[in-house]
Amino acid sequence: MLRLHTLCAGLLAVSTALAGDREPEIQRAPATPQAVGVVHTLRTIPEACTRLEGRFTGNAGAPYALAAVRTGARCQPRSALRQDAPAAGAAGWVLNDLIRVPSAACPSRQAVIRIWRRPASAAVPRMDAQGKARVYLKEGLDAAAAGQLGAIPQYAMAMAMEGKDCR
Question: Is residue 42 within 8 Å of 68, Cβ to Cβ?
Fold first, then answer.
């Protein structure tokens, strides 16, 4: 009997690891239940100048709509937002946030939004003779012209529906 419990626990641990369900960096409780047709903000990613909005549609084919909305016309993004999830176990990606939004019309059904973050390994500017790290426009323009700009941080998101349907 003990071997069976140990085997089940091992299989659960392996399946969780394969599914990529690690603990997210941001811990949050499930959102308040949302009614069908009501647009709600899920999260703002200021680095990408983006706000994630969702709404339950009431449509059986696509029960939840998720949209990335630009926060402002003058906002300059310092990171990129991808609409597709990274491959399971992709190097460098960290599960950043897990957002659960229950449906008010069907409490057993919820939208689950996973957000991954891929930090960029930005080099620290070198110190000048005065001990200050200075960034000069000409050096940046020269690096851009030579195609030697560093990587920028990235975010990726994926949405799934979980739970029993209330039909």
Answer: no
- 99 inside domain: yes
> To which H or E segment does residue 137 belong?
helix 137-145
Q: Is residue 10 part of a domain?
A: no
| 85 located within any domain | yes
The pTM for the full model equals 0.72
C-alpha span between 83 and 69 (Å, rounded)? 12
- Is residue 98 included in any domain, yes or no? yes
| Tens-place pLDDT, residues 85-130 | 887 778 889 999 999 999 999 989 999 999 999 988 655 677 888 9
Cβ neighbours for 115, distance < 8 A, ≥ 6 positions apart: 24, 43, 45, 52, 95, 96, 97, 98, 99, 155, 156, 157
Element containing residue 118 per DSSP (H, E): strand 109-118
